[in-house]
Known about the structure:
With 235 residues, this protein is an alpha/beta fold. The protein is 37% helix and 16% strand. It is built from seven helices and seven strands; from the N terminus they run E-H-E-H-E-H-E-H-E-E-H-H-H-E. The strands form two sheets. A five-stranded parallel sheet has the order 3-2-1-4-5, with helices on both faces. Strand 1, helix 1 and strand 2 (35-41) form a beta-alpha-beta unit. The radius of gyration is 17 Å and the shape is globular. The model has no long low-confidence stretch (mean pLDDT 96).
Amino acid sequence: MIEPLDVLVIAPHPDDAEISVGGTILVSRRQGLRVGVVELTDGEPTPFGSPEIRARETAASTEILGLDWRHNLGLPNRSLEHTLEARRALATVFRQTRPKLLLAPYWEDAHPDHVVATQLIDAARFWSKLSRTDMPGEPWHPPRILYYWSIHLRIHPQPACVIDISDVIEEKMAAIRCYESQFFAGRPQTFPTPLDDIRDRARYWGWSIGAAFGEPLGSREQLPLDGLRSLVGKP
């Protein structure tokens, strides 16, 4: 039995969660929220990786992030498809973890796996609430979904909000550095490296809200506020 999660990040591949919302994960854990990550694929094959290497890297990053739960669905990398079987598998995860908030890839991306992942997540969110089904677990409809941006399409998003990650930027970068096969092996470490790009984007989004570092999130729906106190700097 899995204790219900507050936040569940759905990532197409290992390292996508760290790159896109690693800071948001760390902030959420510091705020006492239960946070989990489910990867859809193992990300392999890659030039310098293997399933075993990626699993070790993911375990090291998970320890830094302090996640409450992490799982890999084992769907096919590079040929991810929105099949009924994949939808069922992900909907079952939602029913078992019962998250209040989903973080999913933005629906526009250059990586086909990321585009399919968004479609799959949206459909599985609907399926997870079905009552007349043989899926395990009780019906559950995650109340809210927000979308994060990856690095494959160089667009200028208009986020619904930006999370201040200034206090956790070093931990975010440390979690990303765990993926040595993706960021260091066989790569010339000349400026700007992929890690430089990730940190600089976080700096830009921090600048946009008057903070040191930030991470943007999008929404198809309006976001609620319980008043204006937080916007004027009062807890």
